[in-house]
What we know:
Oligomer: single chain
Distance between the termini: 16 Å
Helix content: over 70%
Structural class: mainly alpha
Largest sheet: none
Amino acid sequence: MQNAETMTVHTVITYDLGRTAPIVAQLALKFAVVLTVWHRRHHTRKALRALPDHLLMDVGLSRDAAYTEARRPFWRV
C-alpha cells in the first residue's frame, strides 16, 4: 500500500523525466520527502504546544489533547 508521499515521489519522477529514474535518484527523492514531512510535523507539533487556549478551542482541541499530540515523536503519524 502506498501513502501520499510515495505516490507524489513516483509522480514527480515519471512526470519530470518521462521515464523511470535511476534507483539512486528515486531513493534520494524519497529520502528528501521523508525529511520534509518529518520537519513539517516537528514544527507543527511545536506550534500546537504553544497555542493559547482560545485558539485551541477554535480548532476543537482541549489543552490535554494538544499536549498529547505535541508529545508524539515527529516520525509517528
